[in-house]
Amino acid sequence: MRIAVTGSIATDHLMTFPGRFADQFVADQMHTVSLSFLVDNLDVRRGGVGANIAFGMGQLGTNPILVGAAGFDFDEYRAWLDRHGVDTASVRISETLHTARFVCTTDSDHNQIGSFYTGAMSEARQIELKTVADRVDGLDLVLIGADDPEAMLRHTEECRSRGIPFAADFSQQIARMNGDEIRILLDGATYLFSNEYEKGLIESKTGWSDEEILAKVGHRVTTLGAQGVRIDRVGEEPIVVGCPEEERKADPTGVGDAFRAGFLSGLAWGVSLERAAQVGCMLATLVIETVGTQEYRLRRANFMERFTKAYGDEAAEEVRTHLK
User: Whole-model pTM?
Assistant: First the structure.
């Protein structure tokens, strides 16, 4: 199964604030917020939702095709992704702009405040999926992740016009999108990904109810934080999958991307939706235990031992035959 992952390619600058953001806000002064947080740590990591998801899929051996735009400073990052099983031949390289940057501070409660510099990502709108499909002899699914908004709209329309199944995944971009744009991006999707907060925001901005949205997509996949994930389908009982036990909580950045990587890999393997969600939750657990979105190591024996403990022998046996 050939899966293309479209989305941002970025460098993450991750900082840790030892206190709580909530303690720094004055309720009646929220309209004039002026805060600076003295942080303890700075980690510079590879990131971007498209690259994070593709990296996770590469770790699971499903050879994803990364589609996005990066800057003239991308060579080292490209080599890293290539070494980890990602097809980067369809990444557009800007001649003038730096690769996008995400700057994020996490407090002691694991709340986050972040800013995103677009950079070369703005050129993603110039990428045509037909060129990608022709190069790899067709696409079976395209994940349309958070990216340049014009690129997201273009990729969605192209998938519809060419009959390519697609998954809608707005994540960080949902804050700047209006209802009309969100309606265009989700209508006809085979999968719609969001977390619980984004789920409510999608409904609020579109004016569509949960039932109306579900009728327009094949599957609604909602991550529930520490509670795992729920998959809704019209006329069928929801599939609910919990998370494996964590060994520690190091950094929540990239956990959602890891879930998508595992879930999409499960689809590529042809396992059930429940199994795919279990793989996603297991991979997400590895990421939350690691600082950075692509710094975890997927050791097959350890992965399967923990997967078996969480989901049982039958589930593990089915997944083990696919995991490389």
Answer: 0.89
